[in-house]
Amino acid sequence: MADDKPSLTRWSFQDFEMVYDAKFGRKRLPESGNSDRHNADDTARNGSALSSVPSGHVSGPSELTIYEQYRQQERSAVHTNGDLSDRSNEKPQISLLPPYESAEMRTLAESLCRDIVRGSPDVKWESIKGLENAKRLLKEAVVMPIKYPKYFTGLLSPWKGILLFGPPGTGKTMLAKAVATECKTTFFNISASSVVSKWRGDSEKLVKVLFDLARHHAPSTIFLDEIDAIISHRGDGRSEHEASRRLKTELLIQMDGLARTDELVFVLAATNLPWELDAAMLRRLEKRILVPLPEPEARRAMFEELLPPVPGEEMLSYDLLVDRTEGYSGSDIRLLCKEAAMQPVRRLMGQLEDIQDLVPEDELPKVGPIRHEDVEIALKNTRPSAHLHAHRYDKFNADYGSQILQ
């Protein structure tokens, strides 16, 4: 690179020695004319980038990380024409990163900041059809403690670990997005690639930094998607790498620490294989919620939304669709409706291919309505994907799940 600043990830011994001497006054920096050394101002700025910057004590933009500069630009863009009269009523902004002592931990924290969902996922509870029990449990486990903290103290302290389990395609990730939308908490969307590193010891540090960031931005929600890929059974005779054991141990320790604090940090995990999880993790995921296959009422609501009736056209038989889709997940129903909607397009494509000349876009014919025979073809071409192991989820829910009275 043409930049003369030393990179934070590639420090030479001379760079470190010069910055250390400049910060702590052991030696004077060389004059700017010395071609063998970096410029004194650049060196001082690089040295300040090594140390942590507490909130509210920033002397210049060079001491900000790229994420903090982005946040500062967002805050300044809100106020236009120099009108800052309403800033006194705003909630004080906190720094993006906690005050870490080392540049290594700060770099790891910056990599995890990319997994923070800054904007709202825009998924409402009403947009999720069915799953009333799961939504009710999530509201009392996450939403209510944030809105009414007065009632959730002592024995009623909020659950810190929630597990969403069920067949694939039933809406577990959508429920997590709804929590992020409704609670307005800092949402960390974490997968296995976020906390697993090829460097020895970095995976455990990433887990620790993740929970430090969550406490710093509390109230916050850590969403661990496909958690069975991170913490499966330990010590059952199968080959397990030492780094994997250390990662699992660190995650268990950090989860155990959440239960001993009053900070509003929630761990929301999702998995399709709950029986693969370690028993120690199941103990820490106190609230275990089954997200089942959609009921007939939920399937009918999905069909009415995805295949709405067209005025003046043939009315589709939603009751027949509900009866024929027993065992289908929400994702399977969406694929079924997509296949049915493709049939009129295929008929239209066959007509256009017979025309030799290219038809202008404004003269293209309209797509016809979806007929009953289109739905029949879609039912023949689409099969359910998650109904074979539905009984295993019911058994796991009977043994370990969280139930509520209707």
TrEMBL record:
Segments of skewed composition (Low complexity): 51-61
Record's keyword annotation contains Cytoplasm: yes
UniProt keywords, alphabetically: ATP-binding, Cytoplasm, Cytoskeleton, Isomerase, Microtubule, Nucleotide-binding
Residue ranges of every copy of the AAA+ ATPase domain listed in the record: 158-295
Descriptive protein name: Katanin p60 ATPase-containing subunit A-like 2
Top-rank lineage group of the source organism: Eukaryota
Classification via InterPro entries: AAA+_ATPase (IPR003593), AAA_lid_3 (IPR041569), ATPase_AAA_core (IPR003959), MT-severing_AAA_ATPase (IPR050304), P-loop_NTPase (IPR027417)
Any GO MF annotation of the entry: ATP hydrolysis activity
Phylogenetic classification of the source organism: Eukaryota, Viridiplantae, Streptophyta, Embryophyta, Tracheophyta
Principal subcellular localization: cytoplasm
Pfam families per UniProt: AAA (PF00004), AAA_lid_3 (PF17862)
Subcellular location(s) per record: Cytoplasm, Cytoskeleton, Spindle pole
